[in-house]
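Changelog note: in this version the structure field was regenerated for every chain. One regenerated record is shown below for reference.
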Amino acid sequence: MNRPQRKNEDFLILTGLSGSGKTVVSHFFEDMGYYRIDNLPAKLIHFLVDFWQTKEVEIQKIVLVVDIREAGFQRDFIKALDKIKNVVTPKIIFLEARDEILIKRYSESRRPHPLKNRKSIQEKIALEREKLAAIRELADEIVDTSDLTIAELRKKLAEKYFRRRKKKLQVLVVSFGYKYGLPLESDLVFDTRFLPNPFYFEKMKNLTGRSKKVRQFVLEAKETKEFWQKLQELLRFLMPRFVNEGKSNLTISVGCTGGKHRSVVLAVEIYRWLKRENFNVRIFHRDIYK
């Protein structure tokens, strides 16, 4: 059977101390195109790898989250790595944090530690460190999340693993009419109903924001010029921060009353601006022909 070409970095294993941020990190990689698998028993890892290697499987990248809650985890995990070493050498990322930080996180979340015994939380953390010591030694990267916010952690990962793809934020610009409802997928929404409305001019009423006459009418208005200048300043501030946060998809919605004139004009301006700034951007006029 012909096997597809898979790279070691396409198979990530995420492990580490409970409360160190595995969920946050796994969701980050999921946002970046990895297929996330949570808590697969270590004994089944080689079956997963064999399945992943078949040509019928379209999943290109996998991030596998494993932790100590499985009995015999350390022994089974090391055996699993040995079984798959001739097929793929996964990149192992180990997350940890200082004891006082882990205790604080457990106190705030009120979630139980996966080690089921009567020991105190501090004793459970110490026991978990001991049980995971051998696996920590195998890690390709150890990340201490003690002093990182979620945004800082995502930024650190983006810089480490996706440096070349930093600008690959997928942006969708949507024009819409408020009378038909707000696009539910919106991240940013700009209301253009305060701008002069071509609808009230007979020669432009049946045209759309794609026409030269309507575009000229809207863009030459004093209010539009001032609004567009301020909007560009806002986009210059926001866009790099969305990229640094590791955001993978962003929907910018621009609305007017019917979604036919003003919103279309401004959506096109935003689309062109993002193109000039080398963002991966698409545009969709949802209500232009309603």
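Spot check on this record: The longest strand covers residues 170-177. Residues 222-245 form the longest helix (24 residues).
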